[in-house]
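name: query_chain
kind: protein
chains: 1
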Amino acid sequence: MVISMTGFGRGKADSGSFSVNVEVKTVNHRFCEMNIRMPRQLLKIEDKIKKRLNQQIRRGRVEVYVSLEGEGAVTRKLHVDWNLIEEYYQFIKEAHGKYGIEGTVTLQDLLNRKDLIHIEESEAGNEELENLVLAATEEAVILLKQMRTSEGEEIKKDLIAIISQLESIVFEIQKFAPLVVQSFKERLTKRMAEFVNGQLDETRILTEVAVFADKADINEEITRLKSHIQQFLQALTEQEPIGRKLDFLVQEMNREANTIGSKANDSNIAKMVVEMKSLLEKLKEQVQNIE
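structure:
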């Protein structure tokens, strides 16, 4: 099954106290790599989030953003350091009596001292919140999978079209290959006739042609190319992730194309090989998008 590695999904879950938003974005990557950004109090469920993601995502770079909103998300509490205030107070009394320092200390003065009075914030972390995060993650992953599958179908159509063109070129090369040997024999006969005044050594010609035919034989490469094409098409129907398998097959087809180009020793086949390599490059680009 062709599934793209590129996708996006967003999930949201609400309760009376919290609102959780989860965004999941995936892009191409050789392996499965996850990066999750979320509030500190949710770090203990990071493994659970990764487990949900791994059930649907087998390959690609995964970026997850978890945001938390609502009055229940953060608890605020006024913290007063009474002991320190008492020490300040005693110091002021002693300074008045000992040094005769005049002045008064107001409540506003105390409020401005953050070391005496400040607000402490504690982030909520409970089972209800965790369940909301996991539910939002599940929704985001479902939407992500739908987008990746939809894009994968479009990639599949393009792959089949490219493979069809590639297959046509392979068949053309296969039909043209025998003519290469025949053309070589004709050229060789003509050249030898020019040098020996029409007295040809048929045995010498047949030997040279046989040697050339052996060197220029591309039947083996064509057979392997056709086999790789069929394996490629078969892989498109499999349900497991196929990206790496297709990438390997494209590499093998490219290797066979290079061998054909070097062995055939014919300008017409060389042109077809160039066209074939251009199609293989398009295949490679598309295959790198597949999970």
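note: The chain is about 60% helix and 15% strand.
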